[in-house]
Amino acid sequence: MRAPVLICPTITLRAYGRLCCAPRRLHCHGSSSQFLNLNLSRFSRRLLTSFFHMEQFQSGAGSSGKKTMVENLKRYGVISSKRVAQVMEDLDRGLFVPAGSSAYVDTPVPIGYNATISAPHMHATCLQLLEDKLQPGMRALDVGSGTGYLTGCFALMVGAEGRVVGVDHIPELVDMSIKNIEKSVAASLLKKGSLSLHVGDGRKGWQEFGPYDAIHVGAAASEIPQPLLDQLKPGGRMVIPLGTYFQDLKVIDKSEDGSIKAHTETSVRYVPLTSRDEQLGGF
Ligand code: SAH
């Protein structure tokens, strides 16, 4: 029988071992699990432990499930701030994953259209990196908004005085993300218009509500799209996975004089930031 490989809600110890020690030999089967949003280097050990801890709590759905998820992310050092912990407890990931999927296990979940909702530790990592730029009243852009989970977290953090825009190029995913948000604690922000989700090519950003204090890109680009750099506010921060097979999560800071500084946070594996046709064709 073929060895279990890669992501999926049923990620195995063996798969994790391969990811940690032999990424070059990564392979996969099935188009929807072709790519994963999994942080390979920094958290891999503690996440392995946290994964099994979280799995034990799967029977506790709803509020106990998400509380346990957040507690584990805190315990293993992925969440370090109260605001990030609070928002991940407030916005129920269970409303954003397909019915029957494991909402609170630390793994990406396929959402159709060759996309996945990122693993909780990746959402937490990105929220931590962007937290200072998600203060009440600030503006944020979420490129590749998928299920809308992270977009909703951004909206709750910047509040009704802020402005959050999610962009995805798959219309069905945008419709689904709107429905997800409508069921969630972020619904009133959507209704009031401080949060909106749009169909579009995220490589062009969303100029209408820019410039943005925070830009998150949820899919891996081969290089940083210039419109996203242009729409980043001086003093703002972008988090973007860069690369094709081997990818780095890059943190891009634009200083007040407009100069750009970048550093690598960690190694990751995301779906590509690409054209709709290429994505639907299975890359
Ligand atoms: N962050 C989201 C989804 C991550 S999957 C979540 O956790 O739910 C990456 C998403 O990027 C997919 O939904 C895919 O459709 C989208 N995407 C890929 N290329 C894109 C592009 N050029 N413009 C807009 N969205 C894109």
Automatic annotation (TrEMBL):
<dbReference type="InterPro" id="IPR000682">
    <property type="entry name" value="PCMT"/>
</dbReference>
<keyword id="KW-0489">Methyltransferase</keyword>
<comment type="similarity">
    <text>Belongs to the methyltransferase superfamily. L-isoaspartyl/D-aspartyl protein methyltransferase family.</text>
</comment>
<dbReference type="InterPro" id="IPR029063">
    <property type="entry name" value="SAM-dependent_MTases_sf"/>
</dbReference>
<keyword id="KW-0949">S-adenosyl-L-methionine</keyword>
<keyword id="KW-0808">Transferase</keyword>
<dbReference type="Pfam" id="PF01135">
    <property type="entry name" value="PCMT"/>
</dbReference>
<protein>
    <recommendedName>
        <fullName>Protein-L-isoaspartate O-methyltransferase</fullName>
        <ecNumber>2.1.1.77</ecNumber>
    </recommendedName>
</protein>
